[in-house]
Amino acid sequence: MNWLEFPEAKQQTDALANSVASRLSAAIESRGNAVLAVSGGKSPIPFFQLMAEMAIDWKRITVTLVDERFVAPDHPDSNAGLVRAHLLQNRAAPARFLPLVREAKDIAAEVAAACRDFVAPDVAILGMGEDGHTASLFPGAPELAAGLDPANAHPILAVTPQTAPHRRVSMSYAALLQSGSLILSIQGAKKREVLDAAGRAVSDTLPISHFLAQDKVPLDVYWSA
């Protein structure tokens, strides 16, 4: 695990965007295309806006989501809506977008479609909640064991969080381990404390601990106060 600390959020965002752009460009140079998986919520908005101005070959990039709330694409809580509004703009407008939820009617059908469409990301950007969840792998969720199973053959699963609104559609731990690289982006002293605790022992009570302990995929942590 590579740990990078920044005194303020803007410096973190700048460094993250430059690193992600470089990694995507390297994948395009190597293979002709690249896949970026991002997390939702309000925290990534400055990163999305900065990425949208990056001079990279966006028409060769597919953007997808690490996880999504099972809501309509025009719902205020939709991660897809957030990506469309803040990332797929300006220079990034030509990118292909692969959402996890197309319509919020049948979650099993949406999961099946997302599994069929799954492409391993070159770069997957994770967030983390103060409960230690990442993607939508929530502690206490009935589906957590399947979500954290490294041998799970299904890259996408439905999750029913006990502590958050909306059912979720999420990449599994096994799917995320197929990424070219993982980046965890977090801010604040509280999340630093949670991450430090997760680094001491692997436990399903802090799902992020599984990602910290694995050695299959390079993991960079970007943290700012």
UniProtKB/TrEMBL annotation:
Question: What are its E.C. numbers?
Answer: 3.1.1.31
Gene3D superfamilies hit by this protein: 3.40.50.1360
Annotated Glucosamine/galactosamine-6-phosphate isomerase domain ranges read: 8-213
Which pathway does the protein contribute to? Carbohydrate degradation; pentose phosphate pathway; D-ribulose 5-phosphate from D-glucose 6-phosphate (oxidative stage): step 2/3
Q: Which Pfam families match?
A: Glucosamine_iso (PF01182)
Q: Which domain of life is it from?
A: Bacteria
The chemistry this enzyme catalyses reads: 6-phospho-D-glucono-1,5-lactone + H2O = 6-phospho-D-gluconate + H(+)
Keywords noted in UniProt: Hydrolase
Q: Which GO terms describe its molecular function?
A: 6-phosphogluconolactonase activity
The cross-references to InterPro entries, in alphabetical order and at most eight, read: 6-phosphogluconolactonase_DevB (IPR005900), 6PGL (IPR039104), Glc/Gal-6P_isomerase (IPR006148), NagB/RpiA_transferase-like (IPR037171)
* Main function: Hydrolysis of 6-phosphogluconolactone to 6-phosphogluconate.
Family membership noted in the UniProt record: Belongs to the glucosamine/galactosamine-6-phosphate isomerase family. 6-phosphogluconolactonase subfamily.
Annotated protein name in UniProt: 6-phosphogluconolactonase
